Amino acid sequence: MKKLSLEKVYQPADVENRWYEKWVSDNLFRADSSSRKKPYSIVIPPPNITGSLHLGHALDNTIQDILIRGKKMMGFEALWIPGTDHAGIATQNKVEKQLASEKLTRYDLGREEFVKRVWKWKDEYGSTIIMQLKRLGVSCDWTRERFTLDEVCSRAVREAFVRLYQKGLIYKGQRLINWCPRCLTALSDLEVEHEEKASKLYYLRYNAPEGSQGVVIATTRPETILADTAVCVHPEDERYHALAGKEVVLPLVGRKLPVISDRAVDPAFGTGALKITPAHDPVDFEVGQAHGLPLIVVINEKGIMNEEAGGAYEGLDRFRCREKILEDLEGGGFIEKIEDYTHSVGHCYRCHTVIEPYLSWQWFVKMKELAAPAIEAEKQGRVRFIPEKYSAIYRYWMENIRDWCISRQLWWGHRIPVWTCSDCSHRDAFLSDPVECPSCHGHRLEQETDVLDTWFSSGLWPLSTMGWPQETDDLKFFYPTNVLVTARDIIFLWVARMIMMGLEFRGEVPFRDVYIHATILGKDRRRMSKSLGTGVDPLELIDKYGTDATRFGLIYMTSQGQDIVYTDERIQMSRNFANKIWNAARFCLSHYPESLPSKKPGDFSLSLADRWILSRMNKVVASAGEAFEGYSFDAISMMLYDFFWDDFCDWYIEIVKPLLNEGAAEIERERIVTIFDYVFSRFLRLLHPLMPFITEELWSLFPGREGSISCASWPDADGALIDEGAEKNITMLFDAVRGIRSLRSDVALPPRKKTVIYLHTDSGECARLFDAERALIENLGVLEKLVIVDAREKLPGKAVTTIVDVHQIVLPGEEIDDIAKQIERMEKEAEKVGRDLEGVRRKLANEAFVKNAPEHVVDAEKAREALAMGQREKLMERLAMLKALA
């Protein structure tokens, strides 16, 4: 066998495209529903076709890829279904902006031509994020790629709608809904983003009919008084007992309003009296329904005051109307006072326009009946949230669920499959487009113009991607899926709805586990935002550091249940780790013999270091398997990093290097290479799900490795090779070496200068161990000679020492060059550390700093103080020793 020679530096760009194309062409990601293996499946959270890859996507999909690759290696038939979401509002907005640049609107094209235009846009731009995901190395089964508006998913959506409609769970009603005046569509409560805004609280006087003093109410929206139909007080508010049941006069309009009592009023807000505007406030709507109040709409769908607002205000924008109303109220003497007020204001999650509560006929799903079995499924453990804290959040929301507004006033999406007969007014939902009315057999049928909320089709995703409502092989074999990996902000928008839909239509939950991963924050500890300039493009990281480094770095910094503050340092660290793996492989492969190693470690008489590294490797195998099942991927990354960098490279390879020289015995070389092969085989397989490209490349280069590493078996821990005694002894040896290295560093000995070291111990067991492994200590400690001294013997004359465990390590004074110079250097260093310590203490003594600075900044200063104190103490100790030698 010809010895391999690898390039000195790992070049990820040379490796990644080549291997990904081969994986796809070899169908390595394709799953088989007729397999005899145990199934394991995941559906991808479908990214919007308008989207581009961000760090949240990168983390989410890396976790899914780790699970799929790992489970495949563990012997499962692993399926990861990819796909994209049609993103109704976002995609329609994209195309309408495109039309606007051509001085056109969708109405100029008409519905049919506009939808064709959107499909054309989707064909041109909709696959961008899929291509970006492929650069991340994801192992999706691309032969099963789905789109929420494709034929398969559309069939599922229609089936689900018709079943719910026929069951009486879908209805059309006039309700107050969230409305975006820019997108001109309804929004669900979960699609409204709330922001704290500085505003004003206006105290307005509503006089009694006879002109006497009536009541003062407080409002943040004076423009809506034009639609007031009552004033409401709390029934137990003693201030208004005499007023309840009477009337007051609406300012500017003159309309008489009843004063009603309802517990919906918060007596602590404003004056405790609330103006009731049923058509423009969700709380007021409920109060109005309970008391039979009329509904007056004064703001139209574009946020413009309509004819009901009156001639002085008709045609004004709602915010301009507010200014005009305030001017008129001031002129009429109706403003009692104005206060600064901060409150939560809802914005459209797509265009960020302030939403308007709007009275409209919309389609709704009754949720209580659907939610009940979904609540029970979680309580029974059929669905498990990880971390567990999200179970309580899910349950609380589900137990207080409201009906879901599913209609959207868009043209792009699943058009609601309901037709109304113009002749007899019969209305029904149909699985296929009707040609005649089933009631009167007339042919004048009109379909609803609205489309379904995008989340309706997304809620069916685990079912529709597998071909439901048809009883497909995929559905029978792979449903329910094993885990859903997602972020916490769509637990209600998506996760809960999938659980409800799965139970309703399949009688089974859609997934067993819901793994909620961390949110990545910017350095300001806020959610990353491209618009604010705090976003990080993962593709730029991939270009700079490589895919493996980007994936590994994200996983390394991600702990279960904790948000993470992103820094480039972890990605850089991971890039260095990839290079470390590459260089270690170069070294090991350079020592492989002409013929492949055919023996196992147990065929040799193993050294202490051999038994230790084999024990450590098998412990890592066992721990990695446990961490994998517990979704502790950061723990896997850390243990693999520490094992390979510290145990294997910094210790084991350094120990055996002298044994691999030209004059070494062949049996010695064969033993070491066999252990190299054993460790690399297991390490690469454990690392593959996290860093797929470099592991595949090295797997192909190590002799005797057949096929792709992704098809290799996950390693099992060999308990017979776990040797606690070897680990204990090696720990004592390494502690001694660290002590020697530290002592050498403290007195600035040249790195290659060999010295004599005395090791003073009163433990006979340790003395025998150190004597037996003398060569190891001398090699790693760069020693000319190690002298093991019994505790009863005298130490050499003047020396510097350090204590490690119960042993004293002694460096004779004559081994130190120019002691006076060393004292001068150390005094300068101690002076600098002292200045740093003084500066930190001044900052921590500043009460304003400690009170106002973020907690993590104060903690960092405290950590600097502790570090400086330790450094100074050690320096002073060494100075005292050196001065004693001078």
Question: How is the main sheet built?
Answer: 4 strands, antiparallel
General form = globular
Query: What is the count of β-strands?
Result: 29
What structural class should be given to the helix and strand makeup? alpha/beta
How would you summarize this macromolecular structure in one to three sentences?
This protein is 44% helix and 17% strand. The protein is α/β, with parallel strands linked by helices and 886 residues long. The strands form 10 sheets. Strands 6-5-14-16 form a 4-stranded antiparallel sheet. A 4-stranded mixed sheet has the order 10-11-9-12, with helices on one face. A 4-stranded mixed sheet has the order 27-26-29-28.
Structural summary, described in words:
The protein has 886 residues and is of the alpha/beta class. It is 44% helix and 17% strand. Helix 16 packs across helix 17. The longest helix is centred in the last third of the chain and has 31 residues, at 855-885. It is globular. The model has no long low-confidence stretch (mean pLDDT 91).
